[in-house]
Amino acid sequence: PDIAGQDLANPIGTILSAAMLLRWSLGQAEAANAVELAVSAALDEGFRTGDIWPRSAAAADSCTRVGTVGMADAIVARMGPGRARPAGPPPADDLDIGTTVATAQLLGLL
Length: 110
Known about the structure:
The chain has 5 helices and 2 strands. With about 110 residues, the protein is mainly α. It has a two-stranded parallel sheet with strand order 1-2. Strand 1, helix 3 (about 55-60) and strand 2 (about 65) form a beta-alpha-beta unit.
């Protein structure tokens, strides 16, 4: 590929594919939720790779441009207990650190 090894690829599709694997093939809905919420949180906080960088300067002002590794790091940093939560009360059975680490390892991010 023309961008291989250049820290330009957007890893979100791969990461969300791993969330689908966790949910539908491995029966790990909580881990899949953690991955999906972490992706949403990273995007909500303005992290963007070049392919999804805003065209308008005004929108770009509130974003942080990152590469492949930077986006993956932003997502992993938002996984785990007390992180990346939807609005409302926290779930009754929160993820433990072991599940979070195992999920990150499955994604190849640790």
